[in-house]
Amino acid sequence: MTSERYDVIIVGGAVMGSSAAFWLTRMQPDLSVLVIEMDPSYAYSATALSVASIRQQFTNPVNVEISRFGIGFIRDLEGSLGREVGIPSLGLRENGYLFLAGTSGAAATMQEVAAMQRALGAGTEVLDADALAARFPWLRLDDVTAGSFGPSDEGWFDNMGLLNGFRLAARAQGAEYLVDRVTDLLRAGERITGVRLASGQEISCGALINAAGTRAADILRTAGEDIPVEPRKRTVFMIDAPNARHPDAPLIVDHTGFYLRPEGEHWITAIVPEGDGPVDPSDFEPRASDFEDLIWPRLYDRAPGFDAVKVLRWWVGHYDYNTLDQNAIVGRLPGLANLYLMNGFSGHGLQQAPAVGRGIAELIMTGGYRTIDMTPLGAERLQTNTPFAERAII
User: Fold this and answer.
1) Together in a domain, 179 and 115
2) Is residue 91 part of a domain?
3) Does residue 388 lie in a domain region?
4) Do 169 and 206 meet the contact criterion of CB atoms below 8 Å apart?
5) Partner of 305 for a Cys bridge, out of 243, 299, 365, 391, CB 3.0 to 4.6 A?
6) Which residue among 296, 318, 340 closes a domain?
7) Which residue, of 318, 338, 371, is where some domain finishes?
8) How confident is the model at residue 1, as a pLDDT?
9) CA angle, corner 176, sides to 170 and 181, nearest 5?
10) Angstrom distance (rounded) from CA 187 to CA 228
11) Are 223 and 336 in contact (CB under 8 A)?
């Protein structure tokens, strides 16, 4: 049963919103926190439709630090959330990531970035073409100059396990969840005073967190604010390739534009579609032709074992895509003293949720970041149109 006022209202209850709820109630058990989620099945959330990967190989130090925190949290989920939550493991599979470079300039950049990643605790290795051929003899590497490989702390895990863990722990610590849809943010000057719901109810708050994913910009517009975040559609294919059975392969990010990773004896693959642009947040119609037209030719060029391929199924997920720089927008929105953003993750939100949820909670509870300084991801850069670019975008 909801009250009429909460210390913190969180709009969106998927992995970002639930992470914030978990950390807030962990830091201050008597804090009243309400999470408003319009679809408790999460069937179309980015969390549920993610390929559920985590990597250390980012080009900005803050993103590496966020992932370093995330891998520790995920690896020891029971210690992170508490044994009473009842989720002992997320089945983390540490096959690693392999980024392939096609030019000497890209290879030099890999060396520079890998040094930064290693300084922060990652195990990134940069391999030349001969070393790549020795480690991955099933790949065709005629056009590859180098590869950046993370042999540990990178891989994939149970996405819904992480979400459910955060939700269960947050609720056990006192957070409340309400099934409804926020139609308006209520504003008085430089403060958000509450929300109006589709049910007609109005609830006031001390602070508000926007964790609404692809609908984040729509929510903000009701308060006269805007951010450069829009839904982008990605069609993901699960395929069978009987002549390419490599269940221990890493997630490969090919310089020709696609990615590929094993899923048991099968594979998951996707590509940025031609003419990529905004879509309606309810548009989940797959682009089934993307595999045959865009992915398969590149895939066969990379590995001859993909000569015979069958598409087993496909699904569509959405990125909350930050059109400024494809990097997260985290922190307080300038001009509003009590509105906080967890938006624009552009496909990296699941792996960044443990650290970003903690960062937002620290910002609300203490007025600053304590664990990781996420200031570079702040919304101030939106006002000056100054990108904080992340070069390792997938």
Assistant:
1) no
2) no
3) no
4) no
5) 243
6) 318
7) 318
8) 44
9) 120
10) 21
11) yes
- Angle separating helix axes 104-119 and 61-75, nearest 10 degrees: 60
The pLDDT score that the predictor gives to residue 270 is 98
- Cα–Cα distance measured from residue 367 to residue 360, given in angstroms and rounded to the nearest whole number: 10
- Whether residue 270 sits in one domain with residue 166: no
Instruction: Indicate if 358 and 253 belong to the same structural domain.
Output: no
Domain count along the chain: 2
Could you give the CA distance from residue 110 to residue 100 in angstroms, rounded to a whole number?
Answer: 9
Can you give the pLDDT at residue 2?
A: 57
* Alpha carbon distance 305, 300 (integer Å): 7
Retrieve residue 205's tokens.
């708050």
The answer to the question of residue 394 being in a domain is: no
Q: Which residue range forms the structural domain that includes residue 300? A: 97-155+232-318
Is residue 67 domain-shared with residue 110, that is, in the same domain? Answer: no
Q: 18 and 165: one domain?
A: yes
Task: Supply the CATH number for residue 277's domain.
Answer: 3.30.9.10
Q: Are residues 44 and 143 in the same domain?
A: no
Q: Which residues of the chain have pLDDT under 70?
A: 1-3
* Residue 364 CA neighbour count, 13 Å, CB half: 30
Contact 106, 255 (CB under 8 A): yes
171/312 same-domain check: no
Classify residue 391: in a domain, yes or no: no
Give yes or no for a contact between 222 and 185, defined as CB atoms under 8 angstroms apart: yes
**Residues near 81 by Cβ (< 8 Å), separated by ≥ 6?**
22, 87, 165, 166, 168, 169
3-state SS track over the chain: CCCCEEEEEEECCCHHHHHHHHHHHHHCCCCCEEEEECCCCCCCCHHHHCCCEECCCCCCHHHHHHHHHHHHHHHCHHHHHCHHHCCCCCCCECCCEEEEECCHHHHHHHHHHHHHHHHCCCCCEEEEHHHHHHHCCCCCCCCCCEEEECCCCCEECCHHHHHHHHHHHHHHCCCEEEECCEEEEEEECCEEEEEEECCCCEEEEEEEEECCHHHHHHHHHCCCCCCCEEEEEEEEEEEECCCCCCCCCCEEECCCCEEEEEECCEEEEEECCCCCCECCCCCCCCCCHHHHHHHHHHHHHHCHHHHCCEEEEEEEEEEEEECCCCCCEEEECCCCCCEEEEECCCCCHHHHHHHHHHHHHHHHHHCCCCCCCCHHHCCHHHHCCCCCCCCCCC
